[in-house]
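Ticket #4471: structure export looks truncated?
Reporter: QA, pipeline team
Priority: medium

Steps to reproduce: submit the single chain below to the structure queue and open the exported record.
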Amino acid sequence: MRKEVFINKVAKYLPNDPVSIDQIEKRLGLIGDKPSRAKSIILRQNRIKTRHYAVDESGSRFTHTNAQLTANAIRGLFETNEYSLNNIQLLCCGSTSPDQMLPPHASMVHGELPDAPVMEIMTANGGCCSSSNAMKYGYMSVLSGSTSNAICTGSELLSPLLAAKNFNAEYEKLEKLEQNPIIAFEKDFLRFMLSDGAGACLMCDTPNKNSISLKIEWIESISYANELKTCMYQGAEKDSNGDLISWKTLESKEWLDKSIFSFKQDVRHLENYAIKKSVQHVVDSLAKNNIKSEEIDFILPHISSMYFYDKLKNGLAEAGAPFSDEKWFINLPEVGNVGSASIYLMLEQIFNSGNLKPGQKLFTYNPESARFSYSVALLTVV
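Actual output as written to the record:
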């Protein structure tokens, strides 16, 4: 008999009160004590109205670590007595922004859960797809019978990397050289895109008895790194050919002078390939699994900005995989772009909405612009 895997609980944790548009630079600080010239353009395009930061109102104190955000989301899975944390067999954690290089992120999350048992853990490093990779590892573990349950997470603590103090050394250097002291758009861009939070799901080999579950039909992941150069990066800089120079080979003074550890986005590369490759993977995955977009009730897309919504929607329609307006489930304007956590935050909202009905199909879409990786999944409400 073929084993099946079900998502039985989904939870989230968003730190502190929502941050409005006019509060962003109060929390993150002003680079060179001056408002960003790019801010209004970026916010007008991404249409994010509120977001969350693990930073206090003064912008002077960080309130959570990434591991703590993740552990808080996990605790949300066990607010009722249906399941016990003490019975969990596997913990899979994905993140773009772990608190340290070592120990791995899942180890630190496990350490924040003293009530959890000794168990197998797995850390999925990378960009937004790290959370999908964590989910796929948990799915395959339960599907294979290696474990009967798993917790999978996606989380981000990005605000410390977006703080003005990380860019001031570069700003001051430009000013001393009598150059125009404006931080490159590729860096400033992401300061107004990204935010903090965590999501978690509980997978089991049997569905809930008295409430809905999401049966995982399949998860399809792909990389186009063999075809395309890097688009989003951290801990490196690009040379004239578009190749990365690692922080390891740079002088330590350059780490600050060039804001090496900030997140950077090649927006032209993003514009040229993000939607094109998204459409290709979605269409290929639907064809491989013999399902048409018309058979799907909801599409949950992680899009970094509402700027890409119409482009993705129209691109899919032109490629023969149309999704009508009412099928799109997006919470980006309310919760922000939380990187790897975003796909879990959408799942949490729709799963706990009370609106899902048995038989409905959900299609999740999770892109990663770092070097163009994509992950999609089909879930059936049972």
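Status: closed, not a bug. The export was complete when the record was re-opened. Leaving a note from the reviewer for reference: DSSP finds 13 helices and 15 strands in the chain.
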